[in-house]
Amino acid sequence: MDKSIVISGGSQGIGKALVKKFLQEGFQVFTCSRSQEKLNALAHEYNNPRLHTYAADLSDKKQVQAFAAWVLNKATSIDILVNNTGVFLPGQIQNEEDGVLEKQIETNLYSAYHLSRALLPTFQAKKSGHIFNMCSTASITAYTLGGSYCISKFALLGMTKVLREETKTQGIRVTAILPGATLTPSWDGVELPAERFIPADDIASTIWAAYQMNPSTVLEEILIRPQLGDIDL
Question: Keyword Heme on this protein (predicted)?
């Protein structure tokens, strides 16, 4: 039976690297993006019948639930969930625009919460599965221009820890991925050389390696930084 992975936010950056990696490993890949145009480009680039795409804005609970229902209708089984959808809006609590906190909490935290809840019963029924939450070094470090982004990522790490405790006796593994600056469109316009960043493919390879471990073993948190360290926000 084909194995399946659900990757939220798979049209670019780390999500796209994950789509590429798991297609190479023979998985059925279910992914979403807010942009149908980017999903069309993704499907055209990989031209693989095992890639299934769906347009949805996961900051909206109803669209999360619609995406989950679509996955459950198409997938015979789900083995991995990667909660990767995210948005980065730099700023400071003292002066960021009204609504910035809500937007980042809805996108970075609530999407993972609602998608996990929707797909958990499939993992629980077969007493196996692996959930990866894309946290950040901003989940453990307060950056000067991190503002609400840091708040949302601290909260996502907290949710990951809670989910790990809730599901560890159910055969479900839960892992927090905490990448530093990764070469994705979030850094477009920043005048730094590519070698100053983590390649997105390295994050995908790390998730694959964590999944490959014995079911009796779980990597609870994986912290990844550029060799030269953090890039200050």
Answer: no
